[in-house]
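Lab notebook, bench 4. The sequencing result for the construct came back, and we need a structural model before the next group meeting so we can plan mutations. Quick request posted to the team channel:

Model the 3D structure of this chain.
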Amino acid sequence: MEFFYSLQGEGYHTGKAAFFIRIGGCDVGCYWCDVKESWKASLHPLETVENIVAEALKNNAKSVVITGGEPLIYNLLPLTEALKKNHFSIFIETSGTEEARGIFDWICLSPKRQHPPLPFFFEKANEMKVIIHDEKDFEWAELNASKINNECKLYLQPEWSTAKKMTPLIIDYVKMNTKWSISLQTHKFLKIP
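Done. Here's the predicted structure in token form:
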């Protein structure tokens, strides 16, 4: 769909410079998604792996974030191999609904209720970020936390449209359940892509 150089706005790597690759296509379809234009892959022109890597090399980025849509509906091995040959660290953001085909240094799992993750991601995720749209999502977060590996960083992130209401509840929840941290969409506050 697009690629650009910016700062990671949320989760564990917040504030780090990275080259973002947003893959078009999604089989999850969250009603609160803030990039719904990414859902239909056919709306976005195809790019070659060589062109994407060449664009990444034009920046000072040492890290690449692959996001979507849902990037793992594709075999990302050719892209990630080419990025690795150029010494990039590769972070993926996924709902975990598809097989992980590619080389990834960091897996951010963001489980969605309407299409739960595959068991592999509970074993391999480095970070789990659960989006909190309403109070029922705390239960969903705990269900997923009960399955995740012990080394995984756990984040609760307010969904942007309900952030004013949910952020105070998340703060209270994290204070009572200290295995969790809060993640904010800092790129939206800073008005950067």
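Residues 2-190 form a domain with the TIM Barrel fold (CATH 3.20.20.70).
Will bring this to the meeting.
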